[in-house]
Write a structure and sequence with these properties.
Blueprint: E1 2-7, H1 12-24, E2 28-34, E3 54-58, H2 64-74, E4 78-81, H3 88-93, H4 95-117, E5 125-131, H5 155-174, E6 178-183, E7 185-187, H6 196-205, E8 210-213, E9 219-224, H7 225-238, E10 243-247, E11 252-254, H8 255-270, E12 281-284, H9 299-305, H10 313-326, H11 328-336, H12 342-347
Parallel strand pairs: 1-2, 1-4, 2-3, 4-5, 5-6, 6-10, 7-9, 8-12
Antiparallel strand pairs: 9-11
The protein binds nicotinamide-adenine-dinucleotide and thymidine-5'-diphosphate (TYD).
């Protein structure tokens, strides 16, 4: 049985990846390792937590002794590494936490993987999930390619860039078989309501202001999280080792236009008068070091592996809003902090 360690599986993207792998590959043993920081929520995985091929491990990737012990105990064949501190605004107020988890944590995983498999890499892979933010900011034109130089601007993107460099260095130096993917902004159900889309859905539901940073003319390339999980599945199984693949939605939106679309869809779904949610838009002080524009050229993964996004933005956004509206208890659990008791009830 192939034993796969997925880190950060209680988080937003990780939970979608864990669910996909547990359901699609009953002959794999999936180990979900997560520290359950504020961003980890095991309620995201209630539907698969009793599956025989699923094991949850609570642990911190920066805890060398613990990581060493689980590599010895389970001898994982592969790693899909998603655990990270992931929010740019938090990285501005607490950059050290990002260096610790994203850089040191990644190195501890790399070291353990190397020690376990260095005499026989055959069939093994260390798949590192990264972000397009490592490339820095685009101007009005151009796209990030796999060959674009790294130029990170926030402590978050600097820590992810550093972790990418270490992964590549382990490949060059020790032959460790890695793959890296750099993906654009994800959205979908079960995203922690600190990122733009779920925060604004929550605020519209509660008639709270929608804080748009600066003039709102910043651009992001949005991808539905299910399409990202499918790309990860494809790259893990068919991607070439020692390669990087960019993943994106071919879907650029200026923040202000996205927010207006979100407001329009929510007015309709909530039976509110046209334009009422837009009135909540409030322009606030800009984020320091705010990157103007991200946009991905995903032609390599498209041409080599046949991947392309399947869900249009209007459809994905509508489904996302529907999910938050019908799962207000999930949002309430998050905003009250009650979700953190779930682990205690279930696993202790
Ligand atoms: P998230 O913040 O929702 O989840 C992160 C998960 O990692 C949480 O479950 C958290 O408990 C866990 N974690 C944090 N620190 C840990 C530690 N020290 N040890 C063990 N577990 C720890 O993040 P996400 O949005 O799901 O992102 C997952 C990965 O994808 C990250 O590596 C991120 O950089 C990358 N990524 C995210 C996006 C995006 O738009 N969200 C886009 C591209 C790439
Ligand atoms: P975010 O979801 O934090 O993702 P990232 O910074 O990783 O791209 O933010 C997406 C965009 O939305 C980004 O340009 C910052 C902006 N933004 C706001 O204008 N207001 C907000 O409250 C947040 C959280 C983000």
């Amino acid at each position: 049985m192939r034993k796969i360690l997925i880190t950060g599986g209680a988080g937003f993207i990780g939970s979608h990846v864990v669910r996909l792998f547990v359901n699609k590959y009953p002959n794999y043993q999936i180990f979900n390792l997560d520290a359950l920081t504020y961003a980890g929520n095991l309620e995201n995985l209630i539907d698969i937590e009793s599956n025989e091929n699923y094991t949850f491990l609570r642990g911190d990737i920066t805890d060398e002794v613990y990581i060493n012990s689980i590599f010895k105990k389970y001898c994982f064949d592969d790693v899909i590494h998603l655990a990270a501190e992931s929010h740019v605004d938090r990285s501005i107020s607490d950059p050290l936490a990002f260096a610790k988890t994203n850089v040191l944590g990644t190195m501890i995983l790399l070291n353990n993987f190397k020690e376990l498999h260095k005499n026989n890499w055959k069939g093994k892979r260390f798949y590192h999930i990264s972000t397009d933010e490592v490339y820095g900011s685009l101007g009005e034109n151009g796209l990030f390619k796999e060959t674009t130089s790294y130029d990170p601007n926030s402590p978050y993107s600097a820590s992810k860039a550093s972790s990418d460099h270490f992964v590549r260095a382990y490949g060059e130096t020790y032959g460790l078989p890695f793959i890296i993917t750099n993906c654009s902004n994800n959205y979908g159900k079960q995203q922690f309501p600190e990122k733009l889309i779920p925060l604004f859905i929550n605020n519209v539901l509660n008639n709270k202001p929608l804080p748009v940073y600066g003039d709102g003319n910043y651009t992001r390339d949005w991808l539905y999280v299910i399409d990202h999980a499918k790309a990860i599945d494809m790259v893990f199984h068919r991607g070439n080792i020692y390669q990087t693949y960019n993943i994106g939605g071919f879907n650029e939106w200026k923040n202000i236009d996205l927010v207006k679309l979100l407001c329009k869809q929510m007015d309709k779904k909530l039976g509110r008068s046209v334009g009422s949610s837009e009135k909540l838009i409030t322009f606030v002080k800009d984020r320091p070091g705010h990157d103007l524009r991200y946009a991905i050229d995903a032609s390599k993964i498209n041409q080599e592996l046949g991947w392309s996004p399947t869900v249009t933005f209007e459809q994905g956004l509508s489904e996302t809003i529907d999910w938050y509206i019908s799962n207000e208890h999930w949002l309430k659990n998050i905003t009250s902090g009650n979700y953190q008791n779930y682990y205690m009830k279930k696993y202790k």
